[in-house]
Amino acid sequence: MRVLVLGGDGFCGWPTSLYLSDRGHDVTIVDNLSRRKIDIDLEVESLTPIRPIGERIRVWEEVSGREIGFMSLDLATEYDKLVAVLTELRPDAIVHFAEQRAAPYSMRTTSTKRYTVDNNVRATHNLLTALVETGIDAALAHLGTMGVYGYGWSGSAPIPEGYLTVKVPTPDGELEREILHPANPGSVYHMTKTLDQLMFAFYAKNDGLRITDLHQGIVWGTQTDQTSQDERLINRFDYDGDYGTVLNRFLMQAAIGHPLTVHGTGGQTRAFIHIRDTVRCIELAISNPPEAGDRPRVLNQITETHRVLDLAKMVGDVMGVEIAYLPNPRREAEENDLIVRNDQFLALGLQPTTLSEGLLGEGTEIAKHYAYRADPSKIIARSVWKAGMETADDLMTELPAQE
Ligand code: NAD
Ligand code: USQ
Question: Which ligand sits closest to the CA of 221?
Answer without folding.
Answer: 1
